[in-house]
Design a protein that fits this description.
Number of helices: 8
Order of helices and strands: HHHHHHHH
Mean pLDDT: 91
Structural class: mainly alpha
Shape: globular
Length: 206
Amino acid sequence: MKDTAPTSARREFGFFALVLALTNLPLLASHVSETLLFVPSRVAAGEWWRVLTAPFVHVSAYHLTLDAGAFLLLYHGLREPSCAKRLCVAAACAAGSLLASLPVLAPDGSLCGLSGVAHGLLAFSALEMLANGDRTVSRAGLASLLAVVAKSTYEAATGHVAFAALHLGDVASPVAICHAGGVLGGLLAFLSMNAARTSSNSKFGF
């Protein structure tokens, strides 16, 4: 049977690239897609689509390049063969990032960007590497996991994004805790999928 995984991965990559292009078209005129940002008061008023669109919206071309580049690279590098599960991982990271940010967002405050999701994907990828039988790959995975957990924990504790002074363009006012939320989402996604695989293997005697 023909392997369709590469085609599926290309389609996902193309889908995300298209969504990012469409949601950030206003940047060409130096504007932000304000109707797509996550704003708690507007979501409470019924504008539910903001929950889905906010991660893709960015405040500048620099912000878009930074976030989208990291997200697409990490998503493309996921070793999980199932398209549905890869999408679930991204959704879990996005949900964790959003939920962690809610307590610190004012009713009319806003949230956007993929940095929280990217942090979560990095944590998930690091665990995939740890589960690899190769010692070098596993060590790299451990180092990546410790680094992203330490960075996000520091940011959650201090309320400041690490290395913020090194940014070369506008990233607005980052909500530091969203990175920790994304990491937690990625960790929970990996643990739940791993538990499901273990349960399935035990059930069928593998």
